[in-house]
Amino acid sequence: MQRKTETLIYSTGGVVVVFLILVLVNFLAAQLRTRVDLTQGHLFTLSAGTHAVLDKLEAPVKLRFYYTQGSDDVPVDTKAYARRVEDLLAEYQQASHGKVVVEKLDPQPDSDAEDSATLDGIDAQSAGTGGDKFYLGLAVSFLDQKLAIPVLAADRERLLEYDITRAIARATVKDRPVIGVMSSLPVMGGGQLNPMTQQLPTPPWVFINELQRDFTLKKVDEVTDYIDPAIKVLLVIHPREISDDGQFAIDQFLLRGGKVIAFVDPFAYFDQQGGQMGMGQNKSSNLDKLIKTWGLTYDPGKVVLDMKYSTGEGDKKWPTLLTLTAEALNRDDIATNGLTTMMLPFPGAIGGTPAAGLTQTVLIKSSPLNQMVDSIIAQTQGEPATRGFVPSNKALSLAVKLTGKFKTAFPGGRPDEGQKPGMTKDGKPAPEVLKEAKADGAVVLVADADLIADGAAVQQQDIYGQRVVVPINGNLAFAQALVEQMAGDANLVTLRSRADASRPFIVVRELEAKAQQQYYGKLKELQDSLTETQDKLKAMQKGDGKTAAVVTPEQQKELDNFKRKATETKVALKDMRKKLRADSDALQVWTKVVNIALVPLLVALAGIFWAVYRKRRTVEV
Questions:
Q1: Can you tell me the distance from the alpha carbon of 371 to that of 396, in angstroms, rounded to the nearest whole number?
Q2: Neighbour count for residue 28 (Cβ, 10 Å)
Q3: Of 164, 236, 167, 157, which Cα lies nearest the Cα of 479?
Q4: Is 367 within 8 Å of 395 (Cβ atoms)?
């Protein structure tokens, strides 16, 4: 009896000890918050750039997450996306060590949360034809600064981390970033009213107008030898005849920590300096000394001719006017992700290998069906434009991004343009000439300047006296995204788009595609058989040039053969469809079994193996 009592006590004590150990382990694990992200694409892992932005927070940032929960009107896909957004916000909260505070609000109709959503700038979304509304958005506040993401759309999921991190970075900055604009084109407008011709001053480009909403713009002269350090990003647009002083100014600006977005062009169609658009003498631009130092190559006299992305058909086919699809755009970069089309009139190509210490990312590329042609014949259309075409069979880079530590293109120091020693052209004390950047910098080089011109990017309409601008492609979105990325926190430049959470059955789709190819092959076989039989019937019916009124036995035999072939083909198609459905269903079932049951089964087998192993060791002892 005593032995049974002792055994019961020991057993009960063992259970209590195991329970306490489990509680202690869970408590310690909760404090450590150590997790492993095994998802493809690391869906629940924040990038190094985001961590750097969060580490610099000096005060708490509040993220108010508005989502109408429990509503049957919210689409199922949106509900799933909202859960993923919530999970990502939890990652922000954990990574910030308390600096990011997430507040969840459920804006039901006529509730205080709905009023708060309206005040925070969150837009209501329509759930269908019934007029019901729901909210899914995010408001970021830091001290007295507030910024909203009015709609969190599932089609921007790959950019979700970038959007949230950018909002946090922008909310923590009080002053608007200063953007410098250096250009030989009248991008910022200019001129005066001509009383003789009544010609109005040239308005700024739409791209410039859009930038002025979020940034402070400052014009920079092409002949300057010094760029104001207050400028954070320098836009260089078609530097047609830039001086060595101008390139030196860009060089030193970059080495001091500035960021550069340069649009060079071998044939700027919208450069009107020679009179009419498309005409004139020198329409090319270059940054030869800088580009060479960066390790890249660019020929200002050559234009890319691309047969795949050519615009127009027949006599109007324009193979140097490129209409690009999503296939030509880098899906992993913030600036090009989500764009479906762009138009590049007469672009050049960027080649070479980046200099030591620099990393290159290709943003836009041509198809392999390209050839470099002289810019003087770039406007040739139709058959003459493609005469003697020989494809290079290698995609060309049309826009690239360079990051890393840049070195000077002027190792000998400031160009000698006759200015006073130690002074800039403006008469100010010249700063120290740098030979190498102290920190990583960023440059975007685009081999086309026309893409941001109004004529290539937008369509302007006059509606009831108001000018309405409608983008006709992704050109403006691309250029604006570049500026936003560069003008924000330096760590935003390194951010890449996230992977998609949805994972299609790729193998299933490949199986279906193969079966469909067989299906279409059977259809073609049937059509060929039908055509062949009809030709034979016509030949048999001609006789002496007269159409036979009665079908002969030979013709009847041909008809019977055709009917038999058609029946056999239809039966084969029917069997193939059945097999396709069976294979597809079986594959999906086994995929679910592997994903859902395999891991628990492996754990169970491991437990059984361990129990048998322990039992054998106990028996041996």
A1: 9
A2: 10
A3: 236
A4: yes
Do 223 and 245 touch, CB atoms closer than 8 A? yes
DSSP H/E element including 444: strand 441-446
Residue 575 CB: number of other CB atoms within 10 A?
10
For the stretch 29-62, pLDDT in tens is 655 555 555 555 555 678 888 888 888 888 899 9
The token pair that represents 69 in the structure block: 């929960």
Our measurement of the distance from residue 295's CA atom to the centroid of its chain's CA atoms, rounded to an integer in Å, reads: 25
CA distance linking residue 244 with residue 250, whole number of Å = 10
| pLDDT, tens digit, 9 for 90 and up, residues 224-278 | 888 999 999 999 999 998 999 999 999 999 999 999 999 999 999 998 754 444 4
Are 576 and 514 spatial neighbours (Cβ–Cβ below 8 Å)?
no
The total number of residues shown for the chain amounts to 621
CB distance 443 to 428 below 8 Å: no
CA distances for 172 relative to 55, 324, 441, angstroms: 13, 37, 22
Residues 458 and 406 in one domain: yes
Tokens representing 293 are: 């130092």
Residue 328, in any domain of the structure: no
Q: How far apart are CA 139 and CA 167, in angstroms?
A: 9
Tokens found for residue 388:
């003697």
Task: Kindly indicate the confidence band of residue 546, based on its pLDDT and cuts at 50, 70 and 90.
Answer: very low
Provide the whole-model pTM: 0.66
Range of the domain at 248: 178-189+203-299+348-363+396-411+432-494
* Total domains present in the chain: 4
The single-letter DSSP state of residue 313 is -
Three-class HEC string of 497-541: CCCCCCCCCHHHHHHHHHHHHHHHHHHHHHHHHHHHHHHHHHHHH
